[in-house]
């Protein structure tokens, strides 16, 4: 999928309950043109609990006007959020011919997921130490082709931990879900 100018392999898991809820409500992914504002609004609302529309800011009410009806509903002057992030991204793998360019591309996803770089060939022995040190410093996994046509993992992907919920992080998960809706395999 095209994400932030890169074409990585994204390993994700769809939230089955949210997927079923959205499909039953005729929904899909949050539309890209409104994603940042709508997701920011949704993050500020509790799930399944009505909030008076009058307590929202002007910007939040503007976002509410663009919010898909399956994501939040308005009734009797109150808004109720239904949507939750539809997918979890476990790993992003970028392919690269050179370590430095792969490291830069993988860095685009540092705020969202574990990352790895699949190099087109094994680093030269003189460069291997630098690759391994960079991988440890930037917490990026490294793999390359092996002699049998498979893949050799030089450094496994580092575990990723979300520090906080953000609209950008949710948007990233919506993009993975959009890929799923278009026939991608989780």
Observed structural traits:
186 residues; alpha/beta; 5-stranded mixed sheet; 3-stranded antiparallel sheet; 8 strands; elongated
Could you walk me through the main structural features you see in this protein, from its secondary elements to its overall organization?
The chain is α/β, with parallel strands linked by helices. It has two domains: 127 residues, no CATH class; 52 residues, no CATH class. Helices cover 35% and strands 23% of the residues. β3 and β4 form a beta hairpin. The longest helix is centred in the last third of the chain and has 15 residues. The radius of gyration is 20 Å and the shape is elongated. The model has no long low-confidence stretch (mean pLDDT 91).
Number of separate strands? 8
Query: Rounded to an integer, what's the Rg over CA atoms?
Result: 20 Å
Return the structural class: alpha/beta
| Tally of alpha and pi helices | 6
Assembly state: single chain
**Residues in β-strands, percent:** 15-25%
User: Averaging pLDDT over every residue, what do you get?
Assistant: 91
Domain module count: 2
- Helix % is 25-40%
Biggest beta sheet attributes:
5 strands, mixed
Largest sheet, spatial ordering of strands: 1-5-6-7-8
Note the run of SSEs as H and E. Answer: EHHEHEEEHEHEEH
Low-confidence stretches: none
Shape: elongated
End-to-end Cα distance:
12 Å
Summarize it.
This protein has 186 residues and is an alpha/beta fold. The chain is 35% helix and 23% strand.
